[in-house]
Amino acid sequence: MSAQSKQITTLTFFKYSGIRSKIWAFGMMQYAHPYLKDVTGLLNYKMMGSGVGKGFNPWPDWSVYALLQVWENQESADHFLEKSDLMNKFSSRSINSISFFMRNIRSYGAWGGVNPFEKVEHERGGMIAVITRATIKKSKLIRFWSYVPRSQRGLLQNKELLFSKGIGEIPIVQMATFSLWKSEKGIVQYAYENDPHKEAIRRTKKYNWYKEELFARFAVIKYRGSWEGLDLDPDLAE
Fold this sequence. Notes:
alpha+beta
């Protein structure tokens, strides 16, 4: 892509209720892939489950699933989310869903061997989203997960944090987090002033926990749908 990239990233969360719908949603982790092949404008995607509660948690939440997609442009994203058979299937089974439309501010690292996110020039200000993702070395799993509760101290109590959810392709081993913030102020405060988080970064380097890792920050340009307990700026609602 050129310096004038129009790339946009969407992340959609779906919530399911009832055993049949949850089983169906789990099956779509495999069966959704044919619907995502050869989609116009789709550059990359990840079908993911989630962890229970808020933040980083290894135990699966069978009621919430996520679809991350990277698009060439806004038009391709809108067309798929509004008219595709797959989104219609998800919508008919889920009890509610929300899609975030985001432009990348900065990103480093790799996800599946590549960095799918490209920086896009965009007016700063407003809500910020952060995606962190890692493949944890199997030999480091116990040491890593034993420190996670401490590393998250201060995160969920941060008044700038709007939403946080653990997501990933494979529980325990391939994990990611999505967090939504009122502004960059809260992110900077948590990253550089929160002692447990700074210690987690130090331990990551010392113990070499990850086989692969990625960090990406986004400007949220709009959202579609709603989520229980999530109060967002109505001016960004579609």
